[in-house]
User: What shape does this take?
Amino acid sequence: MIKLIKSTFHHEAQTRRALADFILHQDLLSMNGQCRRFEETFAARQGRRHAVFVSNGSVANLLLIQVLVNQGVLRRGDRVGVSALTWPTNVMPLIQLGLEPVAIDCALDTLNISPQNLGRHVSGLRALFLTNVLGFCDDLPALRALCDDHGVVLLEDNCEALGSSVAGTLLGNFSLASTFSFFVGHHLSTIEGGMVCTDDDDLYEQLVISRAHGWDRNLTPDRQQRLRTEAAVDDFHAKYTFYDLASNFRPTEINGFIGNRQIQYWDEIVDARAAHFARFQQAMAGNRDVHQLDLNHMDTVSNFAMPVICRTPELAEKYRAEFEAAGVEIRPVIAGDITRQPFYRRYVAESTERPVARLAHTNGFYFGNNPDLTEDELTTLCDLLGN
Ligand SMILES: Cc1ncc(COP(=O)(O)O)c(C=O)c1O
Assistant: This one.
């Protein structure tokens, strides 16, 4: 069986042994130095000024939107563009916090929002919470320029695209802030985990506050002092003063420890995923039953999972059956057309057509791209793709 998720960690056995040893010998397991070190290493590796480690990618999204609402950057009722092909917890925080998602269709050759598609919706938007779908992107520099021209705040959900780059820049670095997931099966696993990255000092401070109850304990002493002075808080109450709307989104030292080990394999993981993707794409190139991807504009395609979008529903049925008969675990492309999900229909009233997301929903599926795929497994997958 070629499973969607093949392993919990890259270099699984060594990581598990080191983790067992860490747990046996470490006194404090709640958020502390391991988490801080992982944040610093991750920020440096991603090329962002700040990184805030949280318990998963979904709450990375929720925390980011909560803080932007707290700051007044986003206000109740604002329209926020999202990718029609995305994960539910990219969209749910918007609804939960009183914003209005606007699902924008993707382009067939990138499965991501294109400048043309954004152009149709951009004038009414306050922000765009773009998903870099499956490790791919469309013309991100042009999308950013379009957002800048229209005063739209660009945010990136980069949970599926760690290590991908375009125009010499890593995805996740085109926006005010970007989010990452470290769930098992993602590029870098801490079992559960997520990150918010930004270059903005104020946003960073608010993310740290709202990650943990709304208090100031994880800020630097000078930042704490400034807040305490502004709010006229005395020493006795300082540690139990809550500055803004928050929750508890903290990770543990266990997640931090794993992150510090796995991040050493960043290049290995990204290179393997990119190399597998190149082979899959080549194998699929002559196959006229499926739509071809065009990602030549990207420098690195650190692919999350390999999508197959068939030309007809009948072909989709045939290919899904063939993959399953060959022992390949497959699933819908992310969550399919997000506007067809019951939660979306329940809370968002709109009827715009999104033909490409719909096509991916009805005629598509994906299988996992794991850095540990064996040569035999790669051959099986390529044979299936080539028809
Ligand atoms: C685009 C996107 N956003 C957010 C998430 C949520 O991440 P997590 O599973 O860590 O909560 C995922 C998870 O797969 C995702 O693909």
Observations:
- The radius of gyration is 21 Å.
- Residues 38 and 241 are 27 Å apart (CA to CA).
- The chain has a mean pLDDT of 97.
- The first strand starts at residue 50 and ends at 54.
